[in-house]
Amino acid sequence: MSALALGIASFPLLLALIFARAPIGLAMFAVGAVGLTLVTGSPAMVLARLKTESFSTFSSYSLAVIPMFLLMGQFATRGGMSRTLFRAAGAWVGHWRGGLAMAAIVASAGFGAICGSSLATAATMGQVALPELRRAGYAGGFSVATLAAGGTLGILIPPSVVLVIYAILTETNIAHLFLAALLPGLLAALGYGVVIALYVRRYPEAATVMPARGNRGRATLALWPVAAIFALVVGGIWGGWFTPTEGAAIGAAGTGLMAWAGGGLDRAGLTEALLETARATAMIFFILLGAALYNGFLAYARVPQEMSAFVAGLGLGPFMVLGLILLFYLALGCVMDSLSMILLTIPIFWPLVSGLDFGLGAADTAVWFGVLVLIVVEVGLVTPPVGMNLFVITSLDRETPASAAYGPVLWFVASDMVRVLLLLAFPGIVLFLL
Amino acid sequence: MKVERLMRGLARGLALLGGAVLLMLVAMICVSVAGNALARLGVAGFGPVRAGYELVELAVAFVVFAFLPLAQLDRAHATVEVFAARLPARANALLTRFWTLGMALAMVLIAWRLGAGTLAKARSGETTFLLALPIWWAYAACTGAAGVAALVSAWDALRWRA
Known about the structure:
The structure holds 2 protein chains of 2 kinds.
Chain A: H1 3-19, H2 24-40, H3 44-58, H4 65-77, H5 81-93, H6 99-112, H7 118-135, H8 140-156, H9 161-170, H10 174-202, H11 216-221, H12 224-238, H13 244-261, H14 267-300, H15 303-314, H16 318-333, H17 338-354, H18 362-379, H19 388-394, H20 406-425, H21 428-431
Chain B: H1 2-40, H2 52-73, H3 89-124, H4 135-158
């Protein structure tokens, strides 16, 4: 078997191992190590590489941004800002039909501005908003679907851990990616709001009309810590005042102070925040290590180049190829989480996409493709059978089975699809701020 | 039971140590950014932390290695459960045993090779670019943490025999 054939055969094998519940990082590590051993004819090269590869993969200044953003998210969930955000949003739109659900979306978007993770946003906003929605008489499935969709705003609105990983894999400017994701993120929030309005027109019994609540000015002013941290972290990274790693450290310190001032960061809270950061960090970096080995093998077998040449030879249009890739992500997203998908596939897909001509520059193509991928991988978080956000939210509400949310979730997914088509047709929505 | 408590304590303690190092990095970067900002405003005597970049690179590797044992014991590694969930319980138990064993093998391999790497760096005397710190120090710290990860994972894999 030639090296190339081995390389190509390795991908279905890898998927088979992963579907047999292998930890994803381990599957990539093992297939990469065995593959390299087979193509070089001895284990010597793998053993030599591993002397330094684990250390050099982890010892990275740019990757240090990941544990820091994760820590920032952990502090943010303990900072009590979720309640403040929900209250402020409720003061503005809470009295509309379906208004509390819209408030939950707006609050999720606000929380996404200081949290780079989808699950953390869903879990935090869910704890605050779900009981209130249910108390106000909103239907269970509709409430769960709303908060699960709102959770994806945690990733779409910068800072975003998935975008950081994408940036590192494709060597794209993180500041540009954050800037580019902002408008699509706001469009997502707007789209979800429209979905809620349409849904409650179609099913009026799913939502209630509440009296106007709270003082708008005071509730909005209470948001200043969130606004300040977002402006400092994301603004500082855009403005070039500091590196993404520095921005993440400052954000972690800021949300840490906020949580401490709010009383959420006593000894037990800090311990739990550190342990949760540890679990998530180790999970991501172990996949990074497996990916380093697996991609080393693919590169040795010349798979990315041959793949690109093969696809170019098919004579498909660039948009056809891009569309197929996005469909592939939608399908894979039904069973796999977004980070694993990005780490598994970007090293193969990015060389392919960067070779296509969309009438954009190379750097712009990278940013545009990144935002598109970000949106489609997030869809997987809210769709059955393994929409992680759905699970997180339904675990907060014992009365509502996850299946009750499947119908309403499709409405939100439809708005995601509309947004993807919009960005495909008008790359300027992503690129005009750059 | 005693061994289990020891292993869990080891994993948790090491993760908290890594977390403490991470908090120190956060603090150092904040001081560095503040110092840099003051220097740019023309305040004399302030500046960024010297070679902070290098310290982050060296320390974050240890942080990650220190987090690995906890992730293994708490089953924090990403997996795809949908298909296996349809298999009978016995098949699933078998899969769990198989993959914890695989994880243990990988961790032992990583720790062993990192140890070899440490010796090689110690022999070559390679130092960091700015601070001229011997690189093998960082390697040695990571090997220690990787050793704990290997130990904890091996115990995790073998305890199923009982």
